[in-house]
Amino acid sequence: MKSVLLIIVFNLINYNNEIMLIRSLYLNASKSEYHCNKFGETINEKEDVSSILIKGYEACFYFIKCKFIDNPIEKISYFNKGKKLLESLIEENPDAIELRFLRYSIQKNLPRVLLYYDNIEKDLNFVYKNIDNIKESKTKNFILSSIKSIKN
Questions:
Q1: Which of 12, 47, 68, 111 is positioned for an S-S bond with 33, CB 3.0–4.6 A?
Q2: Where do the domains of the chain lie?
Q3: What is the pLDDT of residues 91-144, one digit of tens each?
Q4: Sign of the C-alpha dihedral computed for residues 24, 28, 33 and 35 taken in this order
Q5: Cα-Cα-Cα-Cα dihedral sign, residues 137, 93, 121, 22
Q6: pTM of the model as a whole
């Protein structure tokens, strides 16, 4: 019984460290193609690619990757892949606060001409209304500080 508990605790700590790394890389991904590719590689290396949250960050990678692609057809392909993945994750998990934050951050930073901005206010209000439901202070602080930097 103790060994099972230790394995669970170890996996939880490892997962939290992975998510913190992914969050950190996400914040820098739009700064350069190198940072974007590092973000994408890190996501693809994760063992738990079935994690809803990691898939949410994967969707964000596709959006950010568009910034560094010159071919318009490839750019549209990445955009549509990110949009489809993020929207399906939120549809399946409408109460996932961090996913709603991710969609807010993407929509807030995309050019309006892409017509993907319908949920900006709704997602921001949802996050603010539910942020106290997040028990982990690192996650809560990450979301709040990120929103603050996006709004400015």
A1: 68
A2: 2-151
A3: 999 999 999 999 999 999 999 999 999 999 999 999 999 999 999 999 999 999
A4: negative
A5: positive
A6: 0.87
Burial 73-85 (b: 16+ CB within 10 A, else e): eeeeebbebbbeb
Q: Which two tokens stand for residue 24?
A: 């950190």
The 10s digit of each residue's pLDDT in 8-49 is: 333 444 456 899 999 999 999 999 999 999 999 999 998 666
Contacts by residues 105-114 (CB-CB < 8 Å, ≥ 24 positions apart): 105/60, 105/146, 105/147, 105/150, 106/60, 106/63, 106/82, 108/150, 109/30, 109/150, 110/63, 114/79
Q: How far apart are CA 112 and CA 120, in angstroms?
A: 12
Residue 109 is predicted with a pLDDT of 94
Q: Tell me how far the alpha carbon of residue 14 is from its chain's centroid.
A: 18
CA dihedral 94, 18, 138, 10 (to 10 degrees): 100
What kind and span of H or E run contains 64? helix 52-66
Q: Which two tokens stand for residue 34?
A: 């190198």
